[in-house]
User: Fold this.
Amino acid sequence: MKQSKYRGTGVAIITPFKHQKIDFDALTEIVNHVIDGGVDYIVALGSTGETATLNDQEAKNVLDHVIKVTAKRVPIVAGNFTGNNTLDLCEKIAQYDFEGIDALLISSPSYVKPSQEGIYHHFMALQRVSPLPIILYNVPGRTQSNMQWTTTVRLARDSKKFIGIKEASGDLIQATRIIKNRPDDFFVTSGDDEVAMAMVACGGEGVISVMANAFPMEFSQMIGAALEYDFNTAQEINLDLYDLHKWLYIEGNPVGIKSAMKVLGFCENEVRLPLHPLSEENYKYLKQEVTRIQGFIA
Assistant:
């Protein structure tokens, strides 16, 4: 595995709001929090960043702000170059100024449910116009189509522009088949926090995490321990954090992580419609779990 830049813990950073406007002060705090916590890179404007509810100018402002605050301390991956109109997306990528961005995270098209051949040719069209390396993103829960492991490996072998995959199918069999058959310089990272440690044990390179917004040091330590084959330490941290997963995702992402960040004092508990803040009952249980973890790590 020659790729080391994206080995370890990436964080899919949230976009904080205040009175439904982007809260850039809170965003600054969160960027510094995750970097100080030891994450290896930041993914801005993914689904956790509520990119679907941002207009183009807002998305650019968020990305520019993250670039400025990060100040080259860690690599930055942009996740706002996903779509189900291949021609339109190619034009957007061809015209964009990528100064300060290290790679793109691009999911397979949503809603239209393309065949594997359609997914393959979609990505091959994108790599022809992209000036940056591309991290593939397989997230069937959002796209409603699974990018099969054979398609992932085919893409990895047919273009060096594809440097890795965020595999968020939750299927460790599929992930292991990618790991076994990939080119040597293609990384595989988990897109599901709950199976991140297990995927590293199968030979993966880490995670692009949601929980690392709240607990970057603990999640980074867990992944780091697993990458060093210290599974006793990794398992201990994994189990200490594990009960929080339920409350982070019980009403969808980023609804849960926004609530956790509110508990920790980083931002308001605001999302944009059609998302809705966590229900009062679930917020109570999430707060209890976040507070418990705070007490454990204090």
